[in-house]
Amino acid sequence: MKPRNAPNVAVVSDLHTGCQFALLAPGATLDGGAAVPLNAIQRKLWAMWRDYWQFVRETCKGEAVSVVVNGDALEGRHHNAITQWTQNLSDQRRAAYRLLMPVAEYARSTGGAFYLLRGTEAHDGRSAEDVEGLARELGAVRDETGNHARNELWLRVGRSAAPVHFLHHVGTTGSAAYEATAVGKELVEAFVEAARWAETAPAGVVRSHRHRCIQIKMPSAVGNSFSVTTPGWQSKTPLAWRIPGARQAPAQFGGILIRDGGATEGLYVRTHTYTMRRGRSA
Length: 282
Description:
alpha/beta; Purple Acid Phosphatase, chain A, domain 2; 6-stranded mixed sheet; 6 helices; 12 strands; globular
């Protein structure tokens, strides 16, 4: 597979549009026409979302920027959950379109491209059937089979001869002491598979899914290769409140920005992560 060329790349993931604990753009409506007001959490997330994209614009200073949505754009209907503000998937897709279309238009206006990856089937639907239509409406670049929502993406950033690999899933852990383990393994496994099949080793790998941001670096022939996971845009749900490693940790929100630092720096990642203060003591 020939990786596509790309300029600077902004990456967000795990939007979970449709969840009352997740990001929502103002102006969402239900199928019957009722307006959906933002709750207190969503107002904070909306302010963070706007701040993140301001960070991208100011950092790139008018340079071309491609955007990658690295999975779980929708909340979907899953696990008998009742935390959605709507279980109507048409409502969820319409709200996600309202959120992401300005981002897609921004990317294309700079000379970049917009990509949308498939997340977990519980959220994006079996074989991404719930998110494919959204990706098509947003004008996401098609993969080799013609799908707008893709499983993975190989993308060259700036002048780097090695591509960056994007994929939604990554291993998780119930212990903060081992948070870096699966992230480091992803990069090592990418090196092993590239050597095994005489492919170009990636300059870095980007994963999501766990809603937590961490970055691992190691020296290689292309400079400092990296493995990074992205924060999400969903606060803690009833499921998170019982999972080891998540139940005590504050939720993380934000995105990352991959940039070409030229011959001296090579590719590097700037993380932009937010959180919320813990609740007041009784």
